[in-house]
Design goal:
about 800 residues; Maltoporin, Chain A; 5-stranded mixed β-sheet; 5 helices; about 50% strand; mainly beta
């Protein structure tokens, strides 16, 4: 607890400096103008997006897009990337299982990736200010000082490029300007949540040089409490790792980070704009929240774990005496998504007995402990140069460099730690994009360009499994090159023909490093099964042509319809987790062909906005990870193998509604349906137990959301604005093999049951909107649900879950300048 208090003091000090710097600036000391988003509007406000390489109104773009302004994010209380999935149809964004580090699981229309390993490409492209982020690790981004978010659904193979087979998520920061736009805010809430945020514009040279500084400091205690098992169960023979009388070892899920951004905009003439931005994040958060859902026999009876022999048990028992408690009060797993049953110490689902310590390593080395953190240090710099050569020709260059390094630890929630790991990750990347955009009268808009991307990632770990312990150091360099062209042509009034093409060339390699643990009984030698892997290099290279074709027709000024065909892909690679050379197998890229129709409407003087889309996706060479691997010649051996499972058809529809019956009252709603069906199964997948009856991963048949907000005018006393957000998602499964071929029963080990969430916010703003205070509550019904689960039965005979936060509250005070 001492470190948490120290971290909070550091957070307060950093934030106080930020607030002082912003408040002292003469550029923002003047009386601030009204927030333009807050001004009463006639109907729904226009949102400008850049999905087709130029600024367009959302309702003019023939793509299924959920666009959200920074103000709306604040009203919803959405502070990180995972929050965005609750209001966007057929979008799943979730905090990943703790075993995969600080990352987000991203799926759009049933296409994405659940594994954060650098060898596996994401299925949803993530961009910050048009700069591509290539890894899921570190993608659980905090939403700091954003102008807007654009979520593009469906393959963006021509517009976004590599690994946007499911869609793309684009975050856009606020740009520097001459506007005196500044703010500071402070938040306090449950679990000692303390956040301070701020942002401000500065004019460095009138009409030419502007700057914007923004930042956030966040500190919050964890909501999963770790207890020492022997301390809470005195009759147990499990070694104790606690000191003093308090049985608490610490918490999981706590946050402690600071982030800052400096942006400059230089406009030497009306034809040239140069934007440069530098951002830094220092994250020293706790390990991710995790609890033990199921356990079975972790090894053959008699195998020693942490100095104790494993009990003789049938596989995967529920609520059984697993850890030999001498008092007869059994240590148990969670029942399926329920409380901690039959444990005399606590019935809370928000506890575990994880100690992150291996007191008696199986390899004979000295006892060791994994770091109690999920830390990530990130920084990046980007430059965007735009030159308006003429009224009809614009040139754009986007250059960026980013890097991160991090460390995170994982266990299984038990005092045995049969799968204790300490992981280190490193990544650095460089990208360059060049574009030329031309407007040919009122007939055509054409964009051509080229793209280059290079990255090198490294993964290091100390891994302790039931009967195997080793050190790992893998290096993964990758390069992507692409050229592209997009055009829309209007041969007659109201009709637009759409076209696009992109050629992509990819190459990457994976160098395996496997080493013994110094001081082990083997003298630090590499375990025999792993020795042949050390120094082995797996390679992948390939090229791909993606294209887009469609038509767009404006039936009336209020109604636009479109139909299009588009493609996308996700890059191939090799297995990053082989236990012997026969498992170091490659996998092919995924491909997708999408057929889509949609309508965008603004009715009744823009007081009713209804956007709909329906689609059929032909999804081929689907990549899944299996734990049963007959293809390797050793089906009984531990396995975690990515393979191409086969082909499927995904069908669905989406609707988004925004109503503004009067200026002060806003209603928003969304509805989505998704259906997945395998058309064929590969031989390798069939041998691993996957059948045509299985459902796609993270496929939720139905999702919906409903929000209402009313701005009550108090006259000269200000404005009181209550808001309620309700969202629902049906059950879905994380595992690829999730339906029994004979009985038709669903797999319980990877299932995340459906749930409905209720959030609310009540805000008061002064008449001039300089001051605002807001009270928010999230998960008001205190629903126990899981953000993710990790089925690790194949190696440690356990399943861990990541419970989402219980009911929380927070109060925020904001000052605009």
């Amino acid at each position: 607890m001492g470190s948490a208090k120290s971290s909070m003091r550091t957070t307060v000090a950093r934030a106080a400096l930020l607030v002082a710097a912003l408040a002292a600036s003469p550029a923002i000391a003047q009386s601030a103008p009204q927030d333009p988003q807050a001004e009463p509007a006639q109907g729904n406000a226009e949102i400008i997006v850049t999905a087709q390489f130029r600024s367009q109104k959302l309702q003019d773009v023939p793509i299924a897009i959920t666009a959200v302004t920074g103000e709306t994010l604040e009203q919803r209380g959405q502070t990180n990337l995972a929050d965005l999935g609750t209001n966007a149809p057929n979008v799943t964004l979730r905090q990943s299982a703790a075993s995969f580090g600080p990352a987000v699981v991203a799926y759009i229309r049933g296409v994405g990736q659940r594994d954060t390993n650098f060898a596996l490409e994401p299925g949803v492209g993530l961009y910050i200010d048009d700069v591509y982020l290539p890894t899921m690790h570190g993608s659980l981004l905090n939403l700091v000082d954003l102008d807007r978010v654009e979520i593009l659904r469906g393959p963006q193979g021509t517009l976004a490029g590599q690994n946007s087979i499911g869609g793309a998520i684009r975050l856009y920061s606020k740009k520097p300007s001459a506007d005196t736009d500044g703010y500071v805010s402070a938040t306090y809430g449950r679990f000692n949540r303390l956040e301070l945020r701020g942002g401000a514009n500065f004019t460095l040279a009138p009409d030419q040089l502007f700057a914007r500084i923004s930042g956030a400091s966040v500190n919050k205690d964890g909501y999963i409490t770790r207890y020492d098992y022997r301390c809470t169960h005195p009759g147990s023979t499990i070694p104790s790792t606690v000191t003093g009388k308090d049985c608490k070892l610490g918490t999981e899920g706590g946050k402690s980070y600071v982030a800052g951004r400096l942006a400059l905009r230089w406009t030497p003439s009306s034809m040239i704009t140069a934007d440069i931005a530098v951002d830094v994040t220092r994250d020293n958060s706790e390990p991710g929240a995790s609890t033990l859902l199921y356990v079975g026999r972790q090894a053959a009876p008699g195998v020693v774990l942490n100095g104790l022999a494993t009990p003789t048990l049938p596989a995967y028992v529920l609520n059984g005496n697993l850890f030999g408690n001498a008092t007869g009060s059994p240590y148990v797993s969670y029942s399926p998504f329920g409380n901690f049953a039959q444990d005399t110490f606590s019935n809370s689902p928000y506890i575990n007995y994880e100690n992150y310590t291996d007191t008696a390593p199986r390899d004979g080395s000295a006892p060791w402990s994994a770091p109690l953190k999920a830390a990530l240090n990130t920084w990046g710099i980007s430059g965007t140069l735009t030159a308006d050569v003429s009224d009809n020709l614009q040139l754009t260059s986007i250059t960026a460099y980013r890097e991160f390094d991090g460390i995170y630890s994982t266990g299984d929630g038990s005092p045995f730690n049969p799968s204790l790991q300490a992981n280190k990750v490193f990544n650095h990347q460089f990208s360059q994009e060049l574009r030329a955009s031309a407007k040919v009268g009122d007939i055509a808009n054409i964009t051509v360009g080229g793209y280059y991307f290079n990255k090198t990632s490294r993964y290091e770990a100390r891994i302790t499994l039931t009967t195997l312990a080793f050190l790992e150091e893998d290096t993964i360099p990758a390069t992507t090159k692409a050229v592209f062209a997009n055009a829309d042509v209007s041969p007659i009034e109201n009709l637009t023909i759409l076209g696009g093409i992109r050629y992509t060339d990819q190459s990457k390699s994976f160098r395996y490093g496997r080493f013994g643990v110094p001081g082990s009984a083997s003298g630090g030698a590499v375990p025999p099964s792993l020795a042949p892997l050390n120094g082995l290099v797996g390679k992948f290279s390939g090229s791909r042509v993606d294209y887009r074709a469609g038509v767009q027709y404006r039936f009336t000024p209020e109604i636009m319809g479109y139909a299009q065909f588009s493609t996308g892909f996700r890059g191939g690679g090799v297995n990053p987790r082989p236990f012997f050379p026969q498992q170091a197998l490659p996998h092919d890229p995924e491909k997708l062909k999408a057929y889509e129709v949609g309508f965008k409407t603004d009715l009744f003087d823009r007081r009713m906005r209804l956007n709909t889309s329906a689609f059929i996706n032909k999804y081929t060479d689907i990549l899944v990870t299996v734990a049963n691997c007959p293809i390797t010649g050793a089906p009984a051996a531990p396995c975690s193998l990515p393979l191409n499972a086969g082909n499927a058809t995904i069908k669905g529809f989406e609707a988004e509604l925004a109503l503004r019956p009067v200026d002060a009252f806003t209603i928003e709603a969304s509805l989505a349906y998704l259906n997945f069906k395998y058309d064929s199964i590969s031989a390798a997948a069939a041998n691993s137990g996957i059948g045509r009856e299985d459902r796609g991963q993270y496929i939720s048949p139905w999702q919906w959301s409903l929000s209402a907000q009313y701005a009550l005018d108090l006259g000269g006393a200000g404005t009181l604005t209550p808001r309620v957000d309700v969202s629902h998602i049906d059950s879905f499964n994380r595992n690829a093999n999730n339906v029994d071929a004979v009985s038709g029963g669903r797999d319980i080990f990877g299932e995340i049951k459906g749930y409905t969430l209720v959030n609310a916010r009540l805000a008061y703003a002064t008449e001039d909107r300089d001051w605002e205070i807001a009270l928010e509550g999230r998960n008001l019904t205190n629903k126990l649900y899981y953000a993710d689960v990790f089925d690790n039965r194949g190696s440690t005979a356990s399943v861990q879950g990541t419970p989402a936060e219980p009911r929380t509250w927070a109060v925020t005070l904001k000052r605009r300048f």
